[in-house]
């Protein structure tokens, strides 16, 4: 069990059955207490140190958690979801349409739309379309062709202001020695939105919404609607990330695993296909496109008994590697020493 007062080595615990029983006993919740549920962290909690400790525990035990009590109003969350669903994905596609014009597999296009970015690399096809939006207005073409630009810009601002804050708090919470963060700036903020669309699936038992994978970057912040389907792998069991209206889902990625030298591990997650829908989710993903520094295990975490487990790499190199092997293959293994 993770001990929040311990600064390093959070992943090397040995399962202690008696301690687990005592813990269950202490919850006084009976066997229902055995049902695993994804941690939910309420930012309205007045004790800030408790919030940070909860984030650390959730990150170490699950690699994924939900955040409520952030300051993004529910109506704005709903407006963002409906903009993505109705203004874009539900609109007709094909030659001559906006969707047709944006359909592209060129990762350098600031706004692009496609079915499965890795169709030609991955053996599995997801039941999913995605609209990618680079939200940095400095990037040529960013937002340009989208309808209702104002709302997309608003969406960017919302994510960058609020998700950026969550990313910072989550990193501070997950990072073993918070003060190191200043010197090891991990990510500058979200600069790409991946707006996923999962239409109702006639045969969900023969399909997958999004195949099992871990995210390549440091952290992903995700907004999902009420349909459900996102699951996280926890203790070899797939656990539903039950939708909470307006909550952000925070997901630890591979780069965090590498720089923390396995003190934290990126979580595997997937989306199951459903007969109901469509489902929409909006993931904010930092692309680290302009980053020129090499990332590797942070020196302060290393010793002669804890040698570095990963080679140093540019974020862009790691990202390209992950794209080249397709979702479903954990790229970190290829960077092990
Ligand atoms: O749609 C979802 O809930 C998950 C999306 C996801 O895992 C991703 O964008 O990496
Ligand atoms: Fe993901």
From TrEMBL:
InterPro entries: DIOX_N, IPNS-like_FE2OG_OXY, IPNS-like_sf, Oxoglu/Fe-dep_dioxygenase_dom. The keyword DNA-binding does not apply. GO terms for molecular function: dioxygenase activity; metal ion binding. Gene3D superfamilies: B-lactam Antibiotic, Isopenicillin N Synthase, Chain. PROSITE patterns: FE2OG_OXY. The keyword Metal-binding applies. Residues 189-291 form the Fe2OG dioxygenase domain. Keywords: Iron, Metal-binding, Oxidoreductase. Pfam families: 2OG-FeII_Oxy, DIOX_N. PANTHER family: OS03G0690500 PROTEIN (PTHR10209:SF859), OXIDOREDUCTASE, 2OG-FE II OXYGENASE FAMILY PROTEIN (PTHR10209). Belongs to the iron/ascorbate-dependent oxidoreductase family. This is Fe2OG dioxygenase domain-containing protein. It comes from Urochloa decumbens.
